[in-house]
Protein 1
Amino acid sequence: MFSLNILPKLTAQPLHGLKRTVIMAVFDAFLASVPFAFLYQIILNMLSTTPDMTFQFMMVGGCAVFMILRIFIARYIYISINLIGFDAGRKIRRRLGDHLRKMPMGFFQETDFGSVNNTLLKDIDLIERIFTHIYAPLIATISILIFFAIGLSITNWRLGMAMMSTLPFAVMAYLLTRQYARKWQDRMQRLIHGLNDAIIEYMDGLKILKSHRMTGQAFTKLDDLLKKTRQQALNAEKAAVLPVYSFNLLVESGFIILLLAMTWSWTGGTLSIPQMILFLIASLRFFKPLLSLSMFLAELNYMDLAARRVDKILHLPTLPQGTSQPELKDISVSFENISFGYSKTVLFSGLNLTIPQNKVTALVGPSGAGKSTIASLVARFWEPQKGRILVGTGKDRLDISTMELEYWLHHISIVFQTSYIFNDTITNNLKVAKPDATDTELKNVCNQAQLGSLIADLPLGMDTEVGAGGIHLSGGEMQRLAIARSLLKDAPFIILDEATASLDPENERDIQLAMQNLIQNKTVLVIAHKLTTICHADQIIVLEQGNIAEQGNHEQLMAKKGLYHELWSLQESSKSWSIK
């Protein structure tokens, strides 16, 4: 059964006004039940030898007063429960988003995107519905049933017991069959997540699939998954109706038992006509909410699963969060006995290196040597298993894990090999780095990033929409826009992760000019496969299988004739390759 206690845990804040709304829902249920007591008095009066018309009108008038009062209470409950529900959803989304922001990159690489996407969108919507559509009616329904059970049992306890005799068995049957249904629902949820991932993969690789005539049913991975999901969905739906059907069947059996009990009491002379009429009328009002209750419980079961999925993510460990915001006068970064690995694979063991302030440090080496991992550790996308990453020099060095994550990231700008461009204008894409940037600042960074001529040719200039992922821009233009964004941020530490790896020579020249403006008077960490782009770096660190194989400037490393010299020679010789 869905527990209300989990909602304040999800929001991490109290749900203001919920208790008051619950009390009003119970009071509304009481007002809905009282007219049946009046009805009993009306029946008694009508069947008496001398009916009192004044009394009749008073009872009818009382029913009318309660009806009018319920209109205002219902309006209050509807508005209040919607406000509480939407506010709870807002708080959960903000908390979940903040929690995901603090998760290590490993979570996003090891968790399927469909699962996270469903939790952010679908699951939180379901939780909102607990308040806005189901919670208040559920409280009212249960309250009405309790008031009816008490009132009818006082009138005739034998008939009251007969009417409710099958309810305990209905609840027991619901709980037993629900366990079976939940197993299918969990299985179905995993299939849906996998299907979402497969669809996203299919859309992303559509050009490749078309070129190999593998679209539609020819792409067997997606086709088989669709067929499997369809069959499993049918099985899950069959399992989902079992709790509802078993509950409803046993509940409605209570009406048959009530009729048998009434017949027995009538023949025994212990049942009066007013009681018989009252129970016949009231039983309809009693059993109808019970049938509705089964549907509420079925929906609550889905929502309970959604709440547990959200709660599971909120309890996943995040990166350690520091609290300090020290003034960083020296932005040198040092790795001190760093050990790190992915899953069970150890990449670094006791790694030590220094990235000096206002110098260009380049990381080179074969694929898988650990270049991008070092950059990710500096940016705190990952947390080392052992060791410390320090900023500063001498006695003033500080462990970056003791600082607020946002504060540390404020000092870093990153230009990746493929930078994401939002489906917005050029101006708003730049303002991601500095929301309060002036038009003059935006124009200056665009010129420094070699974007001036491009913007001048656009019909709307800086207000041009660039499409999702920058689809209306070329690869070189997207990279220059990413560099302009980093220029606007003006962080003292720059990370360039293969920023020119996949560009043509003309674009590479423009990018290099843009990067020269970006790295002036900055501490720079460059990751590059093209050694010609980093031969003027102040320090080149050559990595091999997670270890520092060589270190020095270009001339020193070439003189050693080691791994760097070998990589350089291979790239130089590849320039003469041709297809014959």
Protein 2
Amino acid sequence: MNKPDNQSKTESAVVTPRAQDYSQWYLDVIKKACLAEHSAVRGCMVIRPHGYAIWEKMQRELDDRFKATGHENAYFPLFIPLSLLAREEKHASGFAKECAVVTHHRLKSVNGEIVPDPESKLEEPLVVRPTSETIIWEQYKSWIQSYRDLPLLINQWANVVRWEMRTRLFLRTTEFLWQEGHTAHATEKEALEETWRMLDVYADFAENVMAVPVVKGRKTEGERFAGALETLSIEGMMQDGKALQMGTSHYLGQNFSKSADVKFQNKDGQLEFVYATSWGVSTRLIGALIMTHSDDSGLVLPPKLAPVQVIVVPIFKNDEERVKIVDEAKKVAAELKGLGVAVRVDDRDGIMPGAKYYEWEGKGVPLRIEVGPKDMEKGSLCVARRFVSEIKGETAEAQRRRRKCFLPRAEAIASIVPTLEAMQKELLERARSIRGGRTRVLDKMEDFEKFFKEDGGGFAWVHWAGSPEQEEEMASRFETSIRCVPLEDQIPNEARGEGLCILTGKPSKQRVLMAKSY
């Protein structure tokens, strides 16, 4: 059996309680679950095997959805000539402060010091991609000549670099992994349909795979992607009440096709600039998983994204018992694997069963099966859940008993898939309940101020008719932002209808979603 990627026996894996220090709790969960750690490069992270396995499961789920909607994968260069980035003015200015730039292609030793070789200075600086619109549209120029070449539906799985001043593992790092879709269309209508379609793909993934409820909506003008005519987003609430932008989809109009001079001959034989979209999600989704579901014992994972859904732990006292128990554990695992369950047997020597329980609990494995001599004699198995839904007024002891049960062997194995499905639904319901408990419909500024300065904040549905400058005023006063202008069906019934802007008192046709955010 492959050894799990675990911390050493001497490494501290204590998790700070959420209520005590949420930021430290987040970092402690990452450490205990062996998801990622800081690297030697400032602001960059090393994603450890367990963390990367979660990202791989996300990739597979998303990639299947992309291909089901007609998209294909490709790959484009990491380096972008500065002149290409600069062609779309709004885009260039939007990313100017975050760009890493390559100016030389060789080093040399001077008096024992390694420095760039002046003779290797590039004729044109190369930008390490912060996003790929400009380099991709340069290629699309040779790919698109006729309406028959459209739509062009391309996705790329890649890394990007944005030189961040303040970084946090998964949520905001200098280099991160993501996917970026870039599509070309013959009409504005088709491009807008694509923009909304991909937003729906992201929302479906967030809710039905990540078990994270989201709000879909438009970004305000000041929050749009650089160079976009429209930016759509999905916004999730973390357990501390802050919002996290989990995915974006952009309608780019003809901005990038004009800057790259990408035209096509339409059915009437006339030349037109194509219409474009781009859309993406990144490894910050792992941060969303952590902050939405995890607890003071460590990581909690929705079964659909758990690299190991069931861990089987054999319990024995001597070599004679070991042979029988491990053999039975492997048989149980084989039966579960035949049911499509991601299962592993932890038969490592020198580690007590309790330590194994602690480790796998910290890594978020949804279910644990314990196999011991008495279980074999009785023909039963012990099944333990990583979490159970909370019941109001229930004691910790009563909850502990609900988390662990002994079942006849056949019944236990038959229960695993339904239990995983139930846990997936319970996590979504729990997240919705947490969001509901920290959501308010607010009409008065004094109530808004109290909510964010005294009550801990969350999601606030407020009427808004202010300017971008007044958005900044709200941000400086309360550290809040307009997360999105929600779609009508995303607004709670009690928050619908016209009203007055919470800041200016001007008439407002609908509410926006305001919150503090990551």
Protein 3
Amino acid sequence: MPVVVKKVRRLGAGVAGPPGVRVTSPLRPLFVLKTPPCSDACPNHTDIRAILTTIAQAETHGKSYDQAFEEAFSLITEKNPLPAVCGRVCPHLCETACNRAHLDGPASINCLERFVGDFALEKGLPLKRLTEERYAEKIAVIGSGPAGLSCAYQLARRGYPVTVFEAFPKAGGMLRYGIPTYRLPRNVLDAEIDRILSLGVELRGGMAVGKEVPYEELRSNSAAIFVGMGAHKGMRLGVPGEDATNVLSGVEFLHRVNAGEGLDVGDTLVVVGGGDTAVDAARVAARLGAKTTILYRRTIQEMPAIKQEVEEAEREGIEIKFLAAPKEVVTQNGRASGLTCLRMELGEPDASGRRRPVPIAGSEFFVGASTIIAAISQEPDFTGLESFRGERGGTPVDAHGETTVAGTFAGGDILELGIVTTAIFHGRRAAETIHARLRGIPPGGAPPPPVITHDKMRLDLYPKHPRMDMATVPVAERFRDPDREVNLGLTREQVIEEAKRCMSCGLCFQCDNCWKYCQDQAVIKPFEKGQPYRFKLEFCQGCKKCAEECPCGYIEMR
């Protein structure tokens, strides 16, 4: 059995005083839970710290890693029923905020979520109901994208009969019709959707509310409605010539390809835009055999697309012309033959905070193209649901996601263009509010604890450990099988090692430092791992060593 040596420092080490004289302080240690920045940055406020530490501490707590992965899946699906999907398509704002970025690189949170999601699919793990009780109130959900699926899931697991109305033949919304298969394999998407439907959710495909089904009919038959339509309507460039038959919007192009329609885009294709839709469209076009160019009016620093996807596009031979904007679509016999463009320079910041692109006089240049894709923005199709369109386009809602029509909630791209995780949050927020209203439960809960930042921690007490990044399929192999998933994720062993990089910001992870450095025996170490440490304050002299040596910032002196 290893010998544990308790570190003892000389008297007075924690509080200044004359040599050899013990000085006490009225301050006493207190455990204060903090919110880690990863969870704070996540639009759905997933408990990322708990997920990662569950895996990292599995052996310490006498669990197998399979048990830990299953527990991690339960933690994720408290708020997100699509972990394998989000682990592939989320831009992982959580990683940008990770405190470990200030040490040696953020934790690969997205890859861990993907692994846990895939593990659950492989093992056939079901989604858990919160109750076996069944309620009579019927709920209608318009749209089966991430917002609608999230709302349906949260209400179904609470015992409500939910019917989802989807305008397209299959469920998934923008996940299915807007994201290429090389990023999101359809077997993964189908499996996670089927798991939600297995809770008793009814799906009615090919039923566009406002067209095939009047909204008033749903309202008269439902206790509550959630509107989660995606933004499937592309915005126009606003330049002459864009009515040519071979000028498509980014969402239309991706929808047609993802729906299985064969498209002949010719030899050269130009995409206008700098978001994820633009990059996805360009990479799909390259897989269709076209030499592809992206025109973006700002620089790469302002480009809103996921950084890794931009890098992969460049690896695949896609040229990106920065500081360039279209002036006119050049046509011949009703078809576009290319774009007259202007070179740009960045001026003062606009409403988005980014510097406004300004044309440079006399800078015109021509780019030839057999097909042009306009991927500058997109919006929902409000046909039949015009009352939900706000003055600025998006649907106005209150803090609970409720529209101006009582009992009707909304979320996802119908509010504003956003990421999948934000849409999932919108659906969950609405579902929780609907349940609280129908059951007479007080809404809301306690506000989260304050966020702990890296400067409130002792990063020097953590050993450095390089971040694990996932492998990708070689470029040459990608084009032989255009649907093949490019990003390969992490192995089981890599996931375990990556989880151990989590610093458990703001919550004890039992490093023993407080116990080892306390010279007054005021810290009581638990006999059983996983149980909390305690303070015997009558022994404490206020030396502050426990707080000073706590890496994660869980101990404060008050």
